[in-house]
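Quick one, tokens below. Sequence please?
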């Protein structure tokens, strides 16, 4: 499983980096996936995650690398979808922000459970996980803002707002929706996978 995961990661990374639409945007979009890969590599022996979580993380990384290759505003399949539904913007970035909630919430869930950070896994536990996701999402929006200040007009492809005035707020909402969806859909299976490694 490990080598298949690594193979898929590098195949998609190489494809993503081959003649991307905008090289600077590619670096900014793909950098989190590369940092994530390094963290997973360094912690693999000391704190191995569940296979389920590795699959979710790889899926998130692939979403980032696709967005980096085309830029989020120009992913071809979403141009086709938008034409069919009569939408005036490419909404692939919303998939990225749904994943920004769905995957980190499961990472936080696994770490907090395995490290016994909470003694009771009740509503306060869920509140913490959702607050973590919102904090992470808002921090990412701050990074986008700082990048825009540093890069000026060159940050347009990275920001991907496409003229939508509520882009930042809708991005954070998507992260929250992704986190709630992930907790509802994956928690029971995740508990089984956690029992298998305990």
């Amino acid at each position: 499983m490990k080598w298949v995961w690594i193979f898929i990661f590098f195949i998609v990374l190489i494809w993503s980096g081959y003649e991307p639409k905008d090289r600077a945007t590619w670096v900014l979009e793909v950098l989190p996936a590369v940092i994530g890969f390094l963290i997973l590599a360094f912690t693999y022996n000391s704190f191995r995650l569940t296979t389920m979580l590795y699959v979710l993380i790889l899926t998130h990384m692939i979403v980032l690398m696709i967005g980096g290759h085309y830029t989020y505003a120009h992913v071809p399949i979403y141009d086709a979808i938008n034409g069919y539904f009569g939408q005036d913007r490419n909404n692939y970035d919303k998939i990225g922000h749904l994943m920004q909630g769905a995957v980190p919430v499961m990472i936080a869930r696994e770490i907090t459970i395995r490290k016994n950070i909470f003694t009771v896994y009740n509503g306060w536990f869920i509140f913490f996980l959702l607050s973590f996701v919102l904090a992470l999402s808002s921090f990412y929006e701050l990074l986008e803002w700082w990048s825009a200040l540093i890069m000026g007009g060159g940050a347009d492809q990275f920001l991907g707002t496409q003229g939508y005035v509520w882009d930042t707020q809708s991005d954070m909402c998507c992260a929250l929706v992704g986190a709630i969806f992930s907790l509802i859909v994956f928690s029971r299976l995740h508990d089984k996978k956690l029992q298998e490694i305990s």
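The chain has eight helices and no strands. The CA atoms of residues 98 and 174 lie 5 Å apart.
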